[in-house]
Predict the structure.
Amino acid sequence: MGQTAGRGRMAALAAALLLVGTGATLAQTPAKELFGAKTRPSDGAPAAIGFYSHGCLQGAMQMPADGPTWQVMKPSRNRAFAHPAMISLLQRISRDAARQANWRGLLFGDMAQPRGGPMRDGHASHQIGLDADIYLTEMPNRRLSNAERDSMPLPSLIDPKTTHLNERRWRPEIAALIKTAANEPEVERLFVHPGIKEKLCKVAGRDRAWLNKVRPMFGHDYHFHVRMKCLPGSKTCEPQESTGKGDGCDKLDWWFDVALKPPPPNAKPYKKPPPLFMTALPKACAAVLAEPDAQAPAIASATRAATPPAAAYAAPEPTAVAPAPAPAAPSGGMPMPRFRSGG
Ligand SMILES: [Zn+2]
Protein backbone atom coordinates (compact mmCIF):
# COMPACT_ATOMS: atom_id res chain seq x y z
CA MET A 1 0.00 0.00 0.00
CA GLY A 2 1.51 3.27 -1.06
CA GLN A 3 1.81 6.15 1.35
CA THR A 4 -0.54 8.28 -0.73
CA ALA A 5 -3.31 5.66 -0.66
CA GLY A 6 -2.89 5.35 3.09
CA ARG A 7 -3.17 9.09 3.52
CA GLY A 8 -6.23 9.13 1.28
CA ARG A 9 -7.89 6.47 3.41
CA MET A 10 -7.03 8.35 6.58
CA ALA A 11 -8.55 11.52 5.16
CA ALA A 12 -11.70 9.66 4.14
CA LEU A 13 -11.97 8.13 7.60
CA ALA A 14 -11.50 11.52 9.23
CA ALA A 15 -14.18 13.00 6.98
CA ALA A 16 -16.56 10.14 7.80
CA LEU A 17 -15.92 10.57 11.53
CA LEU A 18 -16.57 14.27 11.19
CA LEU A 19 -19.87 13.57 9.45
CA VAL A 20 -20.92 11.08 12.10
CA GLY A 21 -19.84 13.56 14.73
CA THR A 22 -21.86 16.35 13.12
CA GLY A 23 -24.90 14.10 12.83
CA ALA A 24 -24.68 13.09 16.46
CA THR A 25 -24.16 16.70 17.50
CA LEU A 26 -27.16 17.85 15.46
CA ALA A 27 -29.36 15.20 17.02
CA GLN A 28 -28.15 15.76 20.57
CA THR A 29 -27.91 19.53 20.65
CA PRO A 30 -31.05 21.47 21.57
CA ALA A 31 -32.30 23.23 18.45
CA LYS A 32 -32.15 26.59 20.26
CA GLU A 33 -28.35 26.25 20.43
CA LEU A 34 -28.08 25.43 16.73
CA PHE A 35 -30.34 28.28 15.61
CA GLY A 36 -29.02 30.64 18.28
CA ALA A 37 -25.52 30.27 16.86
CA LYS A 38 -26.54 31.50 13.39
CA THR A 39 -25.79 35.16 12.87
CA ARG A 40 -26.89 35.52 9.24
CA PRO A 41 -30.00 34.50 7.29
CA SER A 42 -29.84 31.55 4.95
CA ASP A 43 -29.71 31.72 1.22
CA GLY A 44 -32.85 30.61 -0.58
CA ALA A 45 -36.33 31.91 -1.25
CA PRO A 46 -38.17 33.33 1.74
CA ALA A 47 -40.26 30.65 3.46
CA ALA A 48 -41.92 30.33 6.86
CA ILE A 49 -41.46 26.64 7.64
CA GLY A 50 -43.62 24.82 10.20
CA PHE A 51 -45.68 26.24 13.06
CA TYR A 52 -45.13 29.46 15.00
CA SER A 53 -43.66 27.51 17.93
CA HIS A 54 -42.09 24.61 15.98
CA GLY A 55 -40.32 25.80 12.87
CA CYS A 56 -37.71 27.92 11.17
CA LEU A 57 -37.26 30.66 8.57
CA GLN A 58 -35.51 30.50 5.22
CA GLY A 59 -34.39 33.59 3.32
CA ALA A 60 -35.12 36.05 6.11
CA MET A 61 -34.95 39.81 5.79
CA GLN A 62 -33.68 42.14 8.49
CA MET A 63 -35.77 45.10 9.59
CA PRO A 64 -33.75 48.28 9.06
CA ALA A 65 -32.81 49.70 12.45
CA ASP A 66 -34.53 53.00 11.63
CA GLY A 67 -37.41 54.10 9.46
CA PRO A 68 -39.62 57.17 9.26
CA THR A 69 -42.08 55.66 11.72
CA TRP A 70 -40.07 53.05 13.64
CA GLN A 71 -36.89 52.19 15.52
CA VAL A 72 -35.73 48.66 16.29
CA MET A 73 -34.93 47.98 19.95
CA LYS A 74 -32.64 45.39 21.56
CA PRO A 75 -30.03 45.34 18.76
CA SER A 76 -27.69 43.16 20.83
CA ARG A 77 -30.15 40.27 20.52
CA ASN A 78 -29.92 40.14 16.70
CA ARG A 79 -33.59 39.16 16.43
CA ALA A 80 -34.90 41.71 13.95
CA PHE A 81 -35.34 39.13 11.18
CA ALA A 82 -38.63 38.12 9.61
CA HIS A 83 -40.29 36.94 6.44
CA PRO A 84 -40.16 39.85 3.95
CA ALA A 85 -43.99 39.98 3.95
CA MET A 86 -43.90 40.41 7.73
CA ILE A 87 -41.31 43.19 7.41
CA SER A 88 -43.71 44.97 5.04
CA LEU A 89 -46.68 44.38 7.33
CA LEU A 90 -44.85 45.83 10.35
CA GLN A 91 -43.73 48.88 8.41
CA ARG A 92 -47.30 49.40 7.21
CA ILE A 93 -48.65 49.12 10.75
CA SER A 94 -46.11 51.71 11.90
CA ARG A 95 -47.09 54.07 9.10
CA ASP A 96 -50.80 53.61 9.79
CA ALA A 97 -50.23 54.04 13.52
CA ALA A 98 -48.65 57.39 12.74
CA ARG A 99 -51.46 58.42 10.39
CA GLN A 100 -54.48 57.03 12.20
CA ALA A 101 -53.54 56.43 15.82
CA ASN A 102 -51.48 59.54 16.64
CA TRP A 103 -48.23 57.67 17.26
CA ARG A 104 -44.99 59.40 16.34
CA GLY A 105 -43.70 55.96 15.53
CA LEU A 106 -43.29 52.45 16.91
CA LEU A 107 -40.54 50.71 18.82
CA PHE A 108 -40.12 47.20 17.48
CA GLY A 109 -38.96 44.38 19.74
CA ASP A 110 -38.03 40.80 18.95
CA MET A 111 -38.99 39.33 15.62
CA ALA A 112 -37.07 36.14 14.76
CA GLN A 113 -33.45 34.99 14.72
CA PRO A 114 -31.63 35.15 11.36
CA ARG A 115 -32.84 31.63 10.53
CA GLY A 116 -35.78 31.58 12.93
CA GLY A 117 -36.05 28.46 15.06
CA PRO A 118 -36.23 28.13 18.84
CA MET A 119 -34.44 30.77 20.91
CA ARG A 120 -32.06 30.31 23.82
CA ASP A 121 -34.29 32.53 25.93
CA GLY A 122 -37.46 34.47 25.83
CA HIS A 123 -40.08 33.08 23.46
CA ALA A 124 -41.91 29.86 22.70
CA SER A 125 -43.00 31.18 19.31
CA HIS A 126 -41.27 33.74 17.04
CA GLN A 127 -39.77 30.77 15.13
CA ILE A 128 -40.98 31.17 11.53
CA GLY A 129 -40.62 34.89 10.91
CA LEU A 130 -44.31 35.73 11.28
CA ASP A 131 -44.28 36.93 14.92
CA ALA A 132 -43.12 40.28 16.27
CA ASP A 133 -43.33 42.29 19.47
CA ILE A 134 -44.23 45.99 19.42
CA TYR A 135 -43.69 48.05 22.56
CA LEU A 136 -46.51 50.08 24.02
CA THR A 137 -44.10 53.00 24.50
CA GLU A 138 -44.09 55.64 21.79
CA MET A 139 -40.99 56.17 19.65
CA PRO A 140 -39.10 59.21 20.99
CA ASN A 141 -38.54 62.19 18.70
CA ARG A 142 -34.86 61.40 18.27
CA ARG A 143 -32.83 58.44 17.19
CA LEU A 144 -31.86 56.27 20.15
CA SER A 145 -28.31 55.01 20.48
CA ASN A 146 -27.72 51.27 20.37
CA ALA A 147 -26.98 51.29 24.11
CA GLU A 148 -30.28 53.05 24.81
CA ARG A 149 -32.16 50.60 22.64
CA ASP A 150 -30.83 47.75 24.74
CA SER A 151 -31.39 49.37 28.13
CA MET A 152 -34.28 51.85 27.87
CA PRO A 153 -36.96 51.10 30.48
CA LEU A 154 -40.22 49.97 28.89
CA PRO A 155 -42.86 50.39 31.56
CA SER A 156 -45.64 47.90 32.23
CA LEU A 157 -49.24 49.01 31.80
CA ILE A 158 -50.36 46.59 34.50
CA ASP A 159 -50.57 47.16 38.25
CA PRO A 160 -48.71 44.13 39.63
CA LYS A 161 -50.84 44.18 42.82
CA THR A 162 -54.22 44.01 41.12
CA THR A 163 -53.15 42.43 37.78
CA HIS A 164 -55.55 44.93 36.16
CA LEU A 165 -54.61 48.00 34.13
CA ASN A 166 -52.62 50.80 35.73
CA GLU A 167 -54.91 53.60 34.52
CA ARG A 168 -52.21 56.25 34.95
CA ARG A 169 -50.23 54.65 32.17
CA TRP A 170 -53.16 54.37 29.78
CA ARG A 171 -53.54 56.59 26.71
CA PRO A 172 -56.38 56.30 24.18
CA GLU A 173 -53.70 56.03 21.49
CA ILE A 174 -52.90 52.53 22.76
CA ALA A 175 -56.37 51.28 21.86
CA ALA A 176 -56.12 53.04 18.50
CA LEU A 177 -52.78 51.35 17.78
CA ILE A 178 -53.97 47.85 18.68
CA LYS A 179 -57.15 48.37 16.65
CA THR A 180 -55.09 49.53 13.67
CA ALA A 181 -52.99 46.36 13.83
CA ALA A 182 -56.00 44.08 14.38
CA ASN A 183 -57.76 45.51 11.34
CA GLU A 184 -54.89 44.48 9.05
CA PRO A 185 -56.27 41.54 7.03
CA GLU A 186 -52.88 39.80 7.15
CA VAL A 187 -52.81 39.81 10.96
CA GLU A 188 -53.77 36.40 12.33
CA ARG A 189 -54.03 37.43 15.99
CA LEU A 190 -52.52 39.74 18.57
CA PHE A 191 -51.51 38.93 22.15
CA VAL A 192 -51.97 41.40 25.00
CA HIS A 193 -52.05 41.07 28.80
CA PRO A 194 -55.58 40.24 30.04
CA GLY A 195 -55.67 43.60 31.86
CA ILE A 196 -55.11 45.38 28.55
CA LYS A 197 -57.75 43.28 26.81
CA GLU A 198 -60.16 44.14 29.62
CA LYS A 199 -59.57 47.85 29.02
CA LEU A 200 -59.97 47.46 25.25
CA CYS A 201 -63.31 45.73 25.85
CA LYS A 202 -64.45 48.74 27.90
CA VAL A 203 -63.41 51.41 25.44
CA ALA A 204 -64.21 49.69 22.14
CA GLY A 205 -67.76 50.99 21.75
CA ARG A 206 -69.96 49.49 19.04
CA ASP A 207 -67.24 48.57 16.53
CA ARG A 208 -66.00 45.40 18.24
CA ALA A 209 -65.20 42.90 15.49
CA TRP A 210 -61.45 43.63 15.71
CA LEU A 211 -61.42 42.50 19.36
CA ASN A 212 -61.77 38.92 18.16
CA LYS A 213 -58.13 38.92 17.09
CA VAL A 214 -56.89 40.42 20.37
CA ARG A 215 -56.13 37.46 22.62
CA PRO A 216 -55.25 37.57 26.33
CA MET A 217 -51.85 36.08 27.21
CA PHE A 218 -49.35 36.01 30.08
CA GLY A 219 -46.72 38.73 29.88
CA HIS A 220 -47.46 41.21 27.06
CA ASP A 221 -47.96 43.98 29.60
CA TYR A 222 -45.37 46.41 28.14
CA HIS A 223 -45.59 45.20 24.56
CA PHE A 224 -48.09 43.46 22.32
CA HIS A 225 -47.43 40.64 19.91
CA VAL A 226 -48.37 40.63 16.23
CA ARG A 227 -48.80 37.29 14.50
CA MET A 228 -49.17 37.18 10.73
CA LYS A 229 -51.21 34.59 8.84
CA CYS A 230 -49.45 32.00 6.71
CA LEU A 231 -49.07 33.51 3.26
CA PRO A 232 -51.67 32.34 0.74
CA GLY A 233 -50.35 29.34 -1.14
CA SER A 234 -47.54 28.63 1.31
CA LYS A 235 -47.25 24.86 1.63
CA THR A 236 -44.58 24.96 4.33
CA CYS A 237 -46.41 27.14 6.86
CA GLU A 238 -48.83 25.50 9.28
CA PRO A 239 -51.83 27.70 10.16
CA GLN A 240 -53.15 28.11 13.69
CA GLU A 241 -56.68 27.10 14.65
CA SER A 242 -59.34 29.78 14.23
CA THR A 243 -59.92 32.41 16.89
CA GLY A 244 -63.60 31.50 16.75
CA LYS A 245 -66.43 33.97 17.11
CA GLY A 246 -67.10 36.89 19.38
CA ASP A 247 -65.04 39.62 20.98
CA GLY A 248 -63.77 37.39 23.83
CA CYS A 249 -64.67 40.00 26.42
CA ASP A 250 -66.82 37.49 28.34
CA LYS A 251 -63.89 35.09 28.79
CA LEU A 252 -61.55 37.13 30.97
CA ASP A 253 -62.66 36.07 34.48
CA TRP A 254 -60.49 32.92 34.47
CA TRP A 255 -57.42 35.05 33.94
CA PHE A 256 -58.02 37.29 36.94
CA ASP A 257 -59.61 34.64 39.19
CA VAL A 258 -57.16 31.81 38.49
CA ALA A 259 -54.31 32.29 36.04
CA LEU A 260 -52.90 35.57 37.33
CA LYS A 261 -53.38 34.75 41.04
CA PRO A 262 -50.17 33.94 42.90
CA PRO A 263 -49.76 30.17 43.12
CA PRO A 264 -50.80 28.59 46.45
CA PRO A 265 -47.85 27.78 48.74
CA ASN A 266 -48.19 24.03 48.12
CA ALA A 267 -48.32 24.38 44.34
CA LYS A 268 -45.74 22.52 42.28
CA PRO A 269 -43.13 24.97 41.03
CA TYR A 270 -43.45 25.87 37.37
CA LYS A 271 -41.29 23.56 35.30
CA LYS A 272 -39.92 24.81 32.03
CA PRO A 273 -40.78 22.51 29.13
CA PRO A 274 -37.81 20.48 27.84
CA PRO A 275 -35.91 21.98 24.90
CA LEU A 276 -36.87 21.12 21.33
CA PHE A 277 -34.52 19.00 19.27
CA MET A 278 -34.28 18.97 15.49
CA THR A 279 -36.59 15.93 15.36
CA ALA A 280 -39.41 18.15 16.67
CA LEU A 281 -39.03 20.58 13.76
CA PRO A 282 -39.92 20.07 10.09
CA LYS A 283 -37.20 18.20 8.20
CA ALA A 284 -36.61 21.24 5.99
CA CYS A 285 -35.23 23.09 9.03
CA ALA A 286 -32.06 20.96 9.00
CA ALA A 287 -31.51 22.18 5.44
CA VAL A 288 -32.12 25.78 6.49
CA LEU A 289 -29.42 25.37 9.16
CA ALA A 290 -27.00 23.93 6.62
CA GLU A 291 -27.58 26.52 3.90
CA PRO A 292 -24.85 29.07 3.23
CA ASP A 293 -25.26 32.61 4.47
CA ALA A 294 -27.29 34.88 2.25
CA GLN A 295 -24.83 36.90 0.21
CA ALA A 296 -26.40 39.70 -1.75
CA PRO A 297 -28.72 42.00 0.14
CA ALA A 298 -32.26 40.79 -0.51
CA ILE A 299 -34.29 43.82 -1.51
CA ALA A 300 -37.93 43.17 -0.89
CA SER A 301 -39.79 43.40 -4.15
CA ALA A 302 -43.17 42.72 -2.60
CA THR A 303 -43.19 45.65 -0.20
CA ARG A 304 -46.48 47.09 -1.27
CA ALA A 305 -47.34 50.22 0.61
CA ALA A 306 -44.25 50.07 2.77
CA THR A 307 -42.64 53.46 3.20
CA PRO A 308 -39.84 53.40 2.40
CA PRO A 309 -39.46 50.02 0.71
CA ALA A 310 -38.15 47.48 3.16
CA ALA A 311 -34.43 47.92 2.96
CA ALA A 312 -32.09 45.08 2.46
CA TYR A 313 -30.64 42.58 4.80
CA ALA A 314 -27.41 44.02 6.11
CA ALA A 315 -28.85 47.50 6.03
CA PRO A 316 -26.17 49.95 7.09
CA GLU A 317 -25.96 50.65 10.78
CA PRO A 318 -27.31 54.06 11.69
CA THR A 319 -24.62 56.63 12.12
CA ALA A 320 -23.79 57.14 15.73
CA VAL A 321 -25.67 59.85 17.58
CA ALA A 322 -24.53 61.61 20.67
CA PRO A 323 -25.34 59.45 23.67
CA ALA A 324 -28.14 60.83 25.76
CA PRO A 325 -29.37 59.71 29.15
CA ALA A 326 -32.07 57.11 29.02
CA PRO A 327 -35.48 58.53 29.94
CA ALA A 328 -36.26 58.00 33.59
CA ALA A 329 -39.52 56.22 32.97
CA PRO A 330 -40.65 54.00 35.80
CA SER A 331 -39.92 50.41 35.00
CA GLY A 332 -42.85 48.11 35.18
CA GLY A 333 -42.94 45.02 37.27
CA MET A 334 -44.76 42.05 35.85
CA PRO A 335 -43.03 38.73 36.31
CA MET A 336 -41.65 37.09 33.21
CA PRO A 337 -44.43 35.47 31.25
CA ARG A 338 -44.98 31.79 31.69
CA PHE A 339 -44.50 30.76 28.13
CA ARG A 340 -47.15 28.63 26.56
CA SER A 341 -46.99 26.88 23.28
CA GLY A 342 -47.96 29.28 20.56
CA GLY A 343 -47.65 32.29 22.84
ZN1 LIG B 1 -43.93 37.98 21.24
